[in-house]
Design a protein that fits this description.
Two copies of one chain form a homodimer. The first copy, chain A, is of the alpha/beta class. Helices cover about 40% and strands about 20% of the residues of chain A. Chain A has eleven helices and eleven strands. Chain A has helices spanning about 10-20, 35-40, 50-55, 65-70, 80-90, 95, 125-135, 150, 170-180, 200-205, 205-215, and strands at about 1-5, 25-30, 60-65, 75, 100-105, 110, 115-120, 140, 165, 190-195, 220-225. In chain A, strands 3-2-1-4-5-8-9-10 form an eight-stranded mixed sheet, sandwiched between helices. At the A-B interface, strand 7, strand 10, helix 10, helix 11 and strand 11 of A face strand 7, strand 10, helix 10, helix 11 and strand 11 of B.
Amino acid sequence: MKIGILGTGVVGQTIAEKLVQLGHSIMMGTRDKKSTLAKTGKDNFGRPSFSEWLRNNSKVQFGTYSEAASFGEFLVNATSGMGSIEALKMAGENNLANKVLLDISNPLDFSKGMPPTLTVCNTDSLAEQIQRTFPKSKVVKGLNTLTAMLMVNPGLLSESTNIFLNGNDSNAKSEVKKLLKTFGWNENDIIDMGDITTARGTEQILPIWVRLWGTLQTPMFNFKIVVGK
Amino acid sequence: MKIGILGTGVVGQTIAEKLVQLGHSIMMGTRDKKSTLAKTGKDNFGRPSFSEWLRNNSKVQFGTYSEAASFGEFLVNATSGMGSIEALKMAGENNLANKVLLDISNPLDFSKGMPPTLTVCNTDSLAEQIQRTFPKSKVVKGLNTLTAMLMVNPGLLSESTNIFLNGNDSNAKSEVKKLLKTFGWNENDIIDMGDITTARGTEQILPIWVRLWGTLQTPMFNFKIVVGK
């Protein structure tokens, strides 16, 4: 499958590596190619610069948001939440139309330090804002509730855990589910929460996720929903 | 221990039954004794009226918010979140002072139908509002992330799960932890998240909890935090 990934951070990179392993054709998109490539040295998480990463992942094509969105038959929003709507506008409404958009972004505002706050919550969500802004796109919220390494390696945890899908289009959710199963997720571990408004719940998990990260001193954890005997 | 429970709904009743079983002396408090006793018939969940429940739980004493708060050396806020601050004001600042207040309430507004919205979130929480309003009280948020039956019977689930404590006073959290262990919770299942501001995270779990209730068609579930191998 030809997949366009918007965003060149750790989430975009991790998803891209996995998709290349799985044999997909990948183009990653950014706002401004030159300035993204110009960054050198380690990032805040001690990871190599994007340009270094790109040299080590030579099968990944690199373009603008618009080029990546045009390239992909299936799209992934891996931009940071505060910039997602703008990035998607730059990608272009027509390039998003009639395509599945797996939205991994979270509306986290780190500008006032830790812990981050949400830029939208309670009666709305970023996923809904994206779906409203691009009504022809098939937005599926998913994978936003765990760290990137676990998104593509659920088996790194000591037990099976859960992820959540939110979206209005059942076929789009099925497509996402099919892809996630190739990442190692079991059918039963993927919970279809319902329409896009249910993304309010999954996005509002982030505040406890961030605090658990601090308490557990590792991002390598996930939620499991345990039911009655 | 003498324990005062504010609120006569399903949470208050379930906690009271367990505490009586464990040998504690319980007084439940309400806004207006007469009107609470005057309600007859089943409630919205098909449960018997409070007056019928009280006849079947004759060891439980019954008083006003103020009487119950004065009675208890340890207090439980089991009122509905939208009325909690007012209920606690009626309980009386002096009756709350220097006591642990286990706050189980959630700031859920059901007035516009399902799903409920939060009356406070993101940059504040109900637990923080309570702690600010009653600075001499030792507020510990806890047990607000699962259904009442499971609060006092964690073994009804197929695996051990997690609950979260949020509060500024370490000794108060230790007291709550000790009580929760008598409910059947294991030491390791109770996660101390940190100070009272971490209650933002646990209260904001409710939107996904409510949606999972709909998706799973049962409230008999809980979150388990699974970590790396």
